[in-house]
Design goal:
The chain is an alpha+beta fold. The protein contains 4 helices and 4 strands; from the N terminus they run ααβαβββα. A 4-stranded antiparallel beta sheet has the order 1-4-3-2, with helices on both faces. A hairpin with a 5-residue loop joins strand 3 and strand 4. The two termini are about 20 Å apart. Keywords: Signal. This is Beta-barrel assembly machine subunit BamE.
């Protein structure tokens, strides 16, 4: 139980410290998946950007085709837009990233569980 608490505390601190980094990582993945970026560099574009939900995908229909839009008003002040194929590529990349993160967390937990508690009295022994 104590190991789980330590692992969760570590994960929480890494998550809080990596909020901006996570958004930047997400935007790197969007670009790698083929999304294009447009800066909100005019008052009209800034106003339009503010109408979109931040850091979430929306789908618009353009000429009978879905266009996926990701608005980032905080880091780049821009939108990313792409096709259904770009979105599918992005989803696959995110799946691979989550899988890699889970494997890393499992390896960390296994390493912690391999620690020799013998000299310390074990994790469940009362401290006197």
């Amino acid at each position: 139980m104590k190991l789980k608490a330590i692992a969760l505390a570590t994960l929480a601190s890494l998550t809080l410290g990596a909020c901006v980094t996570a958004t930047q990582n997400k935007e790197n993945m969007l670009a790698a998946a083929g999304f294009r970026m447009r800066l909100a560099d005019t008052p009209d574009k800034i106003a339009s950007l503010k109408t979109l939900p931040p850091h979430k995908f929306t789908v618009q229909n353009q000429n009978g085709q879905p266009v996926y839009i990701y608005a980032d008003p905080t880091v780049c002040g821009c939108i990313y837009y792409g096709t259904q194929d770009n979105y599918a590529n992005y989803q696959q990349m995110m799946f691979q990233q989550r899988l890699a993160n889970q494997q890393q967390m499992t390896a960390m937990m296994n390493q912690q569980m391999a620690f020799d508690y013998g000299p310390w009295g074990g994790p469940f022994m009362p401290m006197y």
